[in-house]
Design goal:
five-stranded mixed sheet, disordered N terminus, Beta-Lactamase, alpha+beta, 56% helix, 15% strand, histidine kinase
Length: 517
């Protein structure tokens, strides 16, 4: 019999059988010490019985020692069962033969043998028991005819042998069914465990917060993103923010519906959808929630990706023909003599420069992620910046004032900071009165933040324009590209800073991280 057909390991099987043997022997010894109603012991406790008990106890100890030995496990089990059968038949002979009833003790042993063995071995053990019983009956028959002239009860022996075969086969069949059920349960358990791990992996990989609720709104399952939105999330709790939504879902005949959670414990605005689970008696709902700020950020990333592809196309498809147009316009301007031709060539050059400026601003978006931060001392940086700005716009030279309420340094990308300030100061100068001090750059510090304010004396933005101020391609001037402020804010965020417009006057504030020297 292959070892793998045993429902237990060989060591545990033999230990189980030995335990059963020892228990039966102790019961018999205990019964030999008790007396019946007629004053006779329940079990004949004569010297022969105690000798039998000593021999059987020795066999139990022997089999217990051999359970870790080198004897093949099937052979060891077969020898043990055969020895048990012979010992029970001997006990039966010591107490009056088949009619004593001790032959019934064979049935538990055959049952155990059927549980621990295959079908052919179960029949083999039953055959050993039958042969032993009929051998004893033959021996008694021989003794009777020689000594006493009585015969053994062959009918009772046949019934006992038949009961032994039935017990062996029934217990074997039960054990086989149990083994098959155990193997099936083990396989299904493994499949269910793998499926649960897969479901957990899929659940945790979701970018949305996934929350499974029952009809009462009690949390049954969730992922890590849900914990981010609802701190303290655990199974079996009732979330106050979601309970009214589940109640509306129940009143709405369990149909899918959108979800909006105005505020949760962290002040987030969540939106998503709700999908019902209606399988048999199971009534529940799965909520898929996203932070609206995260959705806005994702939309921004998609927009940036589209702009990135646009900048690549612009770089390859527009700049080369634009350079040719500009060069042709310059050549035409050199040979233009009449006023009409000069006006037309000036229009070509101006619009070519305007398109080139748009290309430059769009290409700036591609540099958003290429950040090389460094410690920048603002006093020196602003002095150099205003000098370069005055060279680009001579009418602004010396008219822009700087006020330092704090001699601070910032941690910023030098090129990005120059681009942001260039855009802000150019806008401020364009909308100011352009007198001395009409545009000011003010530096102050608030805790760990350095605030750079660009202030002008212009009329400022109206309320409608303020809501679209930092959107791409939004402009209040026909000559503007609408990308300047959008790019400035993107560059600020790339440096972990923030650019805001402070109404009602024309004040832009850049909040940067203070750099400790």
């Amino acid at each position: 019999m292959p070892e793998r057909s045993l429902p237990l390991t060989p060591r545990k099987a033999l230990a189980f059988v030995n335990g059963f043997r020892a228990l039966m022997l102790l019961v018999l010894l205990f019964m030999s010490m008790l007396q019946g109603t007629e004053g006779q012991p329940l079990v004949d406790g004569g010297a022969r019985f105690y000798l039998w008990s000593a021999v059987y106890g020795g066999l139990i100890l022997c089999w217990f020692a051999l359970r870790t030995g080198k004897i093949a496990h099937t052979l060891q089990l077969s020898l043990a069962i055969a020895a048990d059968i012979l010992m029970i038949v001997l006990l039966m002979g010591l107490n009056g033969g088949v009619k004593s009833g001790y032959g019934m003790l064979l049935l538990p042993y055959l049952a155990v043998a059927g549980l621990l063995s295959s079908g052919r071995y179960a029949l083999f053990y039953a055959s050993i028991a039958t042969a032993s019983l009929f051998g004893y009956v033959g021996y008694e028959h021989y003794r009777h005819e020689v000594l006493f002239g009585s015969t053994a009860d062959l009918f009772q022996t046949g019934l006992l042998s038949l009961a032994g075969f039935v017990t062996s086969m029934v217990t074997y069949q039960l054990a086989r069914v149990a083994r098959e059920s155990e193997e099936l349960a083990s396989r299904r358990g493994g499949e269910i465990a793998n499926l649960n791990r897969l479901n957990e992996l899929v659940l945790q990989s979701q970018r949305d917060a996934v929350i499974v609720l029952d009809e009462t709104g009690t949390v049954r399952q969730f992922n890590a993103q849900a914990v981010r939105y609802f701190p303290g999330m655990q199974r079996g709790i009732l979330l106050p923010e979601l309970a009214p939504i589940v109640e509306r879902w129940r009143l709405n005949s369990h149909s899918p519906m959108p979800v909006f959670v105005e505020r949760n414990v962290r002040g987030r605005q969540l939106a998503g959808r709700m999908v019902p689970i209606l399988a048999g008696d199971l009534r529940g709902v799965v909520m898929f929630l996203r932070d609206m700020a995260d959705m806005a950020e994702e939309a921004k990333r998609i927009k940036l990706a589209a702009l990135g592809r646009l900048t690549a196309n612009i770089a390859h498809e527009i700049r080369n023909p634009l350079a040719a147009i500009s060069h042709a316009g310059d050549l035409l301007a050199e040979g233009a003599e009449d006023a009409a031709t000069q006006r037309l060539t000036r229009i070509v050059r101006d619009n070519a420069r305007r398109i080139n400026g748009l290309v430059e601003e769009v290409l700036m978006l591609g540099r958003r992620d290429r950040v090389k931060t460094e410690t920048i001392k603002l006093s020196q940086f602003l002095a150099d910046f205003l000098e370069q700005f005055g060279m680009a716009q001579p009418e602004a030279a010396g008219r822009i004032l700087t006020t330092f309420h704090s001699s601070s340094s910032v941690y910023f990308d030098r090129g990005h900071l120059g681009q942001i300030l260039s855009n802000l100061v150019a806008n401020a100068w364009r909308h100011s009165s352009r007198v001395h001090g009409a545009v000011q750059i003010e530096i102050s510090q608030l805790e760990s933040q350095v605030l750079i304010r660009v202030i002008d004396d212009g009329p400022g933005m109206n309320e409608d324009a303020q809501s679209h101020l930092f959107e791409p391609f939004f402009t209040t001037e026909s000559s503007g590209t609408g990308l300047g402020l959008y790019i400035a804010r993107e560059l600020a965020e790339a440096n972990d800073a923030r650019l805001d417009y402070i109404p009602p006057g024309g004040v832009f504030r850049l909040s940067c991280h203070h750099a400790y020297e």
